[in-house]
Amino acid sequence: MDHSYLFTTKYAGQIVMGRKDLQTESRRKFPDNFLLDLNLAAIYEKDNPKAALQIYQDLERNLASKAPGLKPGEVSFRIGRSHYRLRNYNLALQSFEKALAQSRREKETAPLCHYYRGLIHQVQGDRSRAIECFRSALEGAFLDTIERELGDAERRLRKLQGS
After folding, report:
1. What is the pTM for the complete model shown?
2. How many Cα atoms sit within 13 Å of 3 on the Cβ side?
3. Are 118 and 82 in contact (CB under 8 A)?
4. Are 14 and 22 in contact (CB under 8 A)?
């Protein structure tokens, strides 16, 4: 049985509320489970993107030797999303480009990278690039797992194009 899931689930509320730093404890209890770090960072991401970013960057540094099964494009995407949440837009764009260049990534990664790139270009006032990115996000099969983001991309694209 994979106890890391139970461990993450049991303490998720404490992580979000910031009552306990579980990365150190989880590393002690499960020294070789880097998927646990990925899950911990995902829990941190909305409420504490700095902490999530640090975990993702540590994970990225150790990916090849410690977690070869993880897809590098997914980790790069999550680093980019954390930078986006911190409004580090140039670093976010770099991370999204890195994620798109990786051949090993989840199927949702590419459209999400384009979506967040579109958001950044829109915030920065680059209308034509934002349109290009939102179009790229909407290309291909519609993925139910990211329906909210793709719907938002479609609405933003219509608004930017004046439709």
Report:
1. 0.76
2. 6
3. no
4. yes
